[in-house]
Structure formats: C-alpha cells, structure tokens
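Database export, one record per block. Field names are fixed; values are copied verbatim from the stored entry.
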Amino acid sequence: MRIDPATGAAVPALSGDEIVARVPGLRKDAHLTLEDYARLPGPHVTPEWMWRLKKRVAELQADRKVDGVVITHGTDTIEETGYFLNLVVKSKKPVVLTAAMRPSTALSADGPLNFFNAVAVAANKDAAGRGVLVVVNDWIHGASSLTKTSTTAVQTFLSPLRGLVGTVAYGEAEFYRGPVGKNTLDSEFSLDGVTALPRVDIVMAHENMDGAIVDAAVAAGAKGVVVAGVGNGNMTKTALDALAAQSKKGVVCVRSSRVATGRVGRNVEVDDDKLGLVASDDLNPQKARVLLRLALLKPRSLAEIQRLFVEY
C-alpha cells in the first residue's frame, strides 16, 4: 500500500520489483521470479479471486524450478485466503503469505522485513509439508490457527489456541511444530469440476436476537449459515429455534463464536444433536465459513460435516 495524497487513503500501488527494491540483499538469498498477479485491497477479495489464485499457485508448484511461493496479501482477509489455500492446495512445497499493517510510505513500515522473512521461510527446506504458512512480525503462523486481533497494531496476528509454527529473525527460521489439522496433500477437498462455491452467510449473535436474520440469509440463497454466537457459540432460544427449523430443511447451520479465542464444543451448552447443528470446534466464524463452503460441494451428513470441523 501507499498513501494517496489526494484522499489520505492507503491504496495498492507497489509492483513486485518495487517491493523487492526496498529489501536490499534479498536476491542474494533466493532466486526470485516476480509476478504482479493483482493489486487488490484485502476487503475486496472474493471467493472467485481466491479460486483463481489457487489455480495460479498450483501452476507454479507444478514447475520443477519452483521451490516455494510467496504471496503478499492485505491483512483484512489474509486468514480466509490462507485457510482456503491450506485446504485446496495439493503440494508440500511451501506457500507463504505475508502482509503489512503499515503502508510503505509510513514511518517504520513493516512490509520490507515481513517480505524478507517470508521469502526466507519459503526457501527453507524445513518449511515443506507444514501446510500454508503466514509470516508476519517475525512469527510463523499456520494458516489454520492465525487470526487478526487488532485493527491497527503491528502485532495484530496471533495463533491463540494452537501457538506458533515457528519464528524467523532476519531470515533465520526456527520451527517449533508441524501443521494443525489436515491440509494440502492430506486434504480431501477438491475443486476439480467445480464451477461455483455454495453461498454461506455469517450472522452475528447479540442479546435479544431473533431468528429473522437467519431466515433472511436462507431466503437470499444461503445453503449454510454460520452464527458468530455469544460465549461458547450461544444465542437466544428464538435464534436456536430458527436454526433448527432451517436445519430440518437441509440448510447446514454451524455454531461458532464472536469471542476472540476459545473452542465451541459440541453439546456443551446447546443440544446440537437434538437441534441438528454443527459446532465449529476451534474455527472462528470466517474460517468456519471457508470450510463449510467446501464441505457443501458434495452431499454430506451432519455427522460427516462435524468430523470435518474437528479434523481440519
């Protein structure tokens, strides 16, 4: 990003060559092929864009000369794109996403060092087979565990439940663990022959919530609904009744939480078995939506979908 002096807004502006030019010595540590795939702010990312990105990543990974792929991405939706790629990429070659909280024109811009470290991780042989990674602020996150926790802080990205995959300091990486959950080559999801992803909507729970917004989402075409519930995926009885009624009609309804950390357990405070609901386990609402859209690509029972939320 670069600040537009006319509006004061941060807009995508730098080419790959310009980004690399801000990281002295980078080409000494890796042979880089740069591609200006898109200049798209994070809030403007769409499922179709992620789909095309997955296809391009697959093409690059199929090239024997390519050892890893680094993707610069807006911070607002990096966890959705990263988790999506984690589920559909079919290679052990490293895929590393990185980002910057400060625009390139800011004092102490964080982008250059993040990019340097991301390239170093992608070029590290120990990164292979760990699923899709996100490298920001000296930390190596798994795409399944990372989440954005602050609107403006540089140290916004955390992996609060699963912890870090590793750390990287000026290109020197240290790995702590492997990936959490099935991913990449172990993933059962495939986009072969698929032309569109089912619509899944997220609904925010609140005090005195009724079921109208759940019904409205289904009326608008949603095949699945994820509720960002209060606490442990809770909501009013009226909202639960609406979810149960939609579940009986074949709409898959998932209970997640609007709380920043913690799991949503099955049958803990809500009788999911009786109501026909799915518990998101440790997936937040935005990642639960990504997983559910892929799960709905073929007929699955609620028990099978619940298994996916536990395993992925």
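Remark 1: DSSP finds ten helices and 14 strands in the chain.
Remark 2: The two ends are 32 Å apart (CA to CA).
End of record.
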